[in-house]
Amino acid sequence: QVQLVESGGGLVQPGGSLRLSCAASESIFSIYTMGWYRQAPGKQRELVATITSAGRTNYADSVKGRFAISRDNAKITVYLQMNSLKPEDTAVYYCNIRIYYSSIRDSWGQGTQVTVYS
103 or 82: whose pLDDT is higher? Predict the structure, then answer.
């Protein structure tokens, strides 16, 4: 129900950096968590990182120390700073928002392609 617009994907060589952003279409006044997931060809979609309304973060082991998730509460925007990129990071990256109100509601972006090559 909440529209999410993603940007920042592209081509980068190993060791390079990219910054993804994802903005929600409307204001949210309840508790919500935002995050990034990715899906590589032939693989299951997996969690990359999440950040709660309180600022607590969670990262997949494969990206710890390389990626950083942050959020702008005023704009309801989530960012993913990706450093030291590896070929195995190549995937379509999807942003997610989970809203906690009377029930739990999930919305997903359409995805942005990240390709790491040498």
Answer: 82
